[in-house]
Structures are given as structure tokens and as C-alpha cells.
Amino acid sequence: MNNFPFNVTQSPYFLALFQKISPAYKPRSPYILHTTLLDQTYLQVKDDVEKVIQSSYYLNIITDEGKNESKDRIINISVNNYRSTFYYSSENAGSMSFTAENLASWLMTKLGVLVKGDWKRINSFATDTYCTILLLWQILAADQRLQLSKALFVPCDFHGLQLIKDVLGLSHYKVIQSQIMLVINTFRRSPLQLSILCKKRKPVMEKLVLWFLLLSLAGVPKHALLNGFTRTKMP
Fold first, then answer.
1. Of 12, 52, 135, 192, which one's alpha carbon is 20 to 30 angstroms from that of 228?
2. Is residue 54's pLDDT more than 50?
3. Which CATH architecture best describes the domain 56-158?
4. What is the DSSP track for the chain?
5. Res 231: pLDDT
6. What is the C-alpha separation between 129 and 205, in angstroms, rounded?
7. pLDDT value at residue 176
8. Residue 119: its pLDDT value, please?
9. CA-based nearest residue to 64, from 151, 155, 2
């Protein structure tokens, strides 16, 4: 639905469109869309995904845990084959502690259903890299069911963007970020000046700006940077 609400079918513009296309057609009600038709579509897509997964012998497992928008504690599994990645399972963990032992038990139970007992199909695991997960690797690697698969364990930081956000939240970087935003917003409010800047912009200027930002992030004093700019010859 491209994020449109189900009641879009009752919109005058929507009704007028279908009146033009087919005057005899009566759009389904929002209730039918988000119950019967949505359920049918979900089951069809689920069946299609299951067929793809079961026709792919080697599977790569991606798993993590955290919170959803409702602050529920959840555990997720995605499955990758040689062509695609599918969001396979998301389960409310409730009061279960996220220990390595609990996570291993839950994961192996889900995978047993996924591979239908053929554990050689598990090709790899991609997970976070904190201490509990590293212990989870050890538990999985020692599990007799996975001995034949010789599964790879791939460290992957799913929260790289969050890490960037945390770094930019540090006081030193906040000052630099505020200066950058001041320049951006100043030009945004001045279309003429922005047009002049875009017309006169040259690759060497872009390099100097990048150089300035990188050295600023490295903690080089502002006066040293300004002195460097004044000594730089512009073409």
C-alpha cells in the first residue's frame, strides 16, 4: 500500500479514479482490506517464501535481539540464500533473559523447524559482536547438530549508524556539527548565494573543506586550520 492507510479506498479521488476506469467496480472496504485480503496475501507470500527457502540447500542465518517501536523485547531471524534475504521470524521474548544459553536454545529450536532436521543446510551465522553473542558463537559451535555443517560465524555490527549518532553526540563533535549546520542553513536561506557558490565550486575547494572537517575531527586547533587556509593558494 506504499504506506497509504487502508481507508484510502474511500477517498473521493480514489473513488473518482475507479469510476473512470470501471464504473461498475466497487472498491473493497478498509475492513476487508486489512482483514480478509491482507490475511490471504500474507499466507500467499509466506508460502512463496517457504518454497524459496526449502528449495535452497545452504542457508545463512542473520539474528539479533532488541526492542520494537512498542518497546517489546524481541528476537529476529532473517534467512539469506544465494540470491535473496527474507525476514523470517520476529518473536516477543517476554521476560526471557538475553543470556547466551537462552538465545542459543531459542535459535536452535527455530532453526530445527526451518531446516527440518537437516542441519548441514546451515552455512553461516551473522550476528552482533558484544560479549554475550561471542559466547553464543561458542555454544553454537559446540552443538552436535551443527558439527556436520561447519558453519561460519560472521561478526557484523548492525548498529553502525547508531554508533555514528552516538559519536556525533559527544560534546567535541556537537560543536563541529553545529558549525556545519550553520553554514548549510545560511546558504539554504539564501538561494542567490547558494547558486553563486554552486557555480563557482571547484574540486579543489571540496577537497579543502573535507580536509578542514577531517582535521577538525582529529582535534587540530581552529587557529592552526585557519592559518593553513590562508597559506593555501586557490586556483
1. 192
2. yes
3. 2-Layer Sandwich (3.30)
4. -TT--GGGGGSHHHHHHHHHH-TT--PPPHHHIIIIIHHHHHHHHHHHHHHHHHH-SSEEEEEEEEE-TT--EEEEEEEE-SS-EEEEEEEE-TT----HHHHHHHHHHHHHHHHTT-GGGEEEEEE--SHHHHHHHHHHHH-GGGTTTT-EEEE--TTHHHHHHHHHTSHHHHHHHHHHHHHHHHHHT-HHHHHHHHHH--HHHHHHHHHHHHHHHTT--HHHHHHHHHHSPP-
5. 47
6. 39
7. 76
8. 92
9. 155
Digit-coded pLDDT (tens) for 99-129: 999 999 999 999 999 998 899 999 999 888 7
Query: What length does the chain have?
Result: 235
All cell numbers assigned to 209: 573543506
**Grid cell at residue 143:** 552443538
For the chain, residues classed under CATH 3.30.420.10 are 56-158
Q: Which residue has the higher pLDDT, 222 or 182?
A: 182
**64: which 3 cell numbers?**
539479533
- Cell 542459543 belongs to 104
pLDDT at site 14: 79
